[in-house]
Amino acid sequence: MDKQQILIVDDEEINRLILDGMFEDEDYVRIEASNGQEAICQMENNHNIVLILLDIIMPVLDGFNVLEYMKERGLLDEIPVILITSETIGDSEDRAYSYGVADVIHKPFYPYIVKKRCKNIIELYQNKHSMKLRLKEQEKAILAQQKEINDNNEFVIDALSSVIESRNAETGDHTKRIKYFTKIMLKYMMENFPKYGLKEQQMDLITRASVLHDIGKIGIPDAILLKPGRLTDEEFEIMKSHTTIGCDILQKFYRNQTSEFDRYCYEICRHHHERWDGKGYPDHLAGDDIPISAQIVAIADVYDALISPRVYKSPYPKNVAYDMIINGECGQFPPDVLECFRLAKEELFNSLEMNDMS
Q: 137: burial class by Cβ within 10 Å (0-12, 13-18, 19+)?
């Protein structure tokens, strides 16, 4: 391993000799520069500098030019600088500290005091650097662990949604399409409606939560769930209960009551059949009282239901399904969500190849 280096920058040779002599008994390589330009060259050619002792007043480039060079390249956070100056305390010292120098020492100085300060500052910066490395390693380990947990959760969620679809006599692709349509819609919502505060993380959580929108259908009797014809009013009331049944199921498995993911699962499961005019179910929410996560999944669910075959109907063409939603034939949707649906039209139309639904 290369030895650590101390860069001594001063236009007066006698000062360089004094500073160099302080570290004769230390295990450092001392390198020198007689002006700011030489100091920059030394920094560019040496990559194990652990401290710079820097004079202010020098020919070619002064100490502040060196500090400016280091600031522009983010080096002041990595390499401590001790400014050594013959100037009186005042503006130059304030200016030096504004750059983030580790210390300012005035000439004449006591070598043993300077040496002690140098060693303390080197140790401080190295400890800080080591801590940064440890934190990065810990962060990588945590991210890897979180990815594994997310992958496991994704597997369980997908498996559960497949069980739901198998009971519902669907192809197994419904939840994949809902997930993909939701992702598309959320992208346009984030880009065009910042008032909802959606970020990449929220988009990911809502997209993953969307596949559980119909989990409550596990509790619906087959005679109703699989009925090929129109449901009676009584049967439809039972079918509508899949929203609250799903919430009961989710609450039994909540791990963290404050989890964003759990909240999105609950919102979507309970409210994806609410309508903007308050004529939905189960709570007859209206307007902005309907969570944005449920609003997005609701329109994705209706669109997929229209373009997909069911035991009781043939699929509608994409453009017909689109017009039905825009024209309000499938219930009233929020204006912002409808606008996103318009913006996403081409992408939704082109997204039906399952190979593209990652």
A: exposed
